[in-house]
Amino acid sequence: MSEPKPAYHRILLKLSGESLLGKLPYGIDFNTAASIAQEIKDVRALGVEVAIMIGGGNIFRGALGTDEGMDRVAADQIGLLATIMNGIALQDALEKKGVFTRHMSALEIRAVSEPFIRRRAIRHLEKGRVVIFSAGLGSPYFTTDTAAALRALEIKAETILKATKVDGIYTADPLKNKKAKKFTAIRYIDVLKRGLTVMDATAISLCKDNNLPIIVFNLKREGNIRRAVLGEDIGTKVT
Q1: Residue 152 has what pLDDT?
Q2: Which of 49, 12, 59, 27 is nearest to 126 (CA)?
Q3: What does 207-238 look like in DSSP terms, one character per residue?
């Protein structure tokens, strides 16, 4: 039986820091990281070029620091450093699976990552390496969602796969409101008008202005990254 054909040649996978928590209240669950790495390996086996934008909320959230009275810039900088730690952990998990990986940070820390250079990132992808982007855009006030949208456009990804803990976009938080209804598809403008918080408004606007589709899906269901790449009807598609 022939291998199924992917719907996309190059993707950007947006992973929150919380995706690495597993059952832990804080930090990195290395078994969970290994499980995500295996799913990414399965997608690479389809011939799909994979870039990843990693968040840092499992270690530190800039918004939380601000709520506690920290300067916004300082709090966001700590959050950016948290994403770099997650990038190192995810790279280690992928390489343990035999996946060639490059970690590129928007903040220069040459001992643990390469600086982000667009043409070099594209070349890594063309050579079959998974590229992990960390430190967002390297600046405060910009979320890793916005960074994901910008990096996806820079590397000419065909879609953003937004991994979450629910199976798509709902009218309200389905974990809090049992009457919330799921969208199978929704327009960018309606996400903005309804104030749906799946990604921040800047990220959604960037995707809207450049016609970059977003697929929001449940990471916790095993095999969903592969299903999304194959174009199966999962989650919610924003176009």
Answers
A1: 98
A2: 49
A3: HHHTT--EEEEETTSTTHHHHHHTT-S-SEEE
Q: DSSP states of 92-131 as a string?
A: HHHHHTT--EEEEESS--TTT-EEP-HHHHHHHHHTT-EE
Residue-number span of the structural domain to which 71 is assigned:
10-238
Domain membership flag for residue 73 = yes
Rounded to whole angstroms, the Cα distance separating 45 from 37 reads: 12
In a domain, 43, yes or no: yes
Please check whether residue 4 lies inside any domain of the structure.
no
Q: List pLDDT tens digits, range 93-105.
A: 999 999 999 999 9
Instruction: Please report, for the domain that includes residue 178, its CATH number.
Output: 3.40.1160.10
**CB 90 within 8 Å of CB 36:** yes
Instruction: Tell me if 50 sits within 8 A of 152, measured CB to CB.
Output: no
Q: What percentage of the chain exceeds 70 in pLDDT?
A: 99
99 phi and psi, to 5 degrees? -95, 125
Tens of pLDDT, residue by residue over 50-109, are: 999 999 999 998 877 888 899 999 999 999 999 999 999 999 999 999 999 999 999 999
Predicted confidence band at 1 (pLDDT cuts at 50, 70, 90)? low
Q: Is 1 inside any structural domain?
A: no
d(Cα 24, Cα 143) in Å, to the nearest integer?
A: 23
Domain count within the chain: 1
Contact (Cβ atoms closer than 8 angstroms) between residue 164 and residue 216:
yes
How many Å apart are CA 19 and CA 85, to the nearest integer?
14
Does the predicted TM-score (pTM) go above 0.85? yes
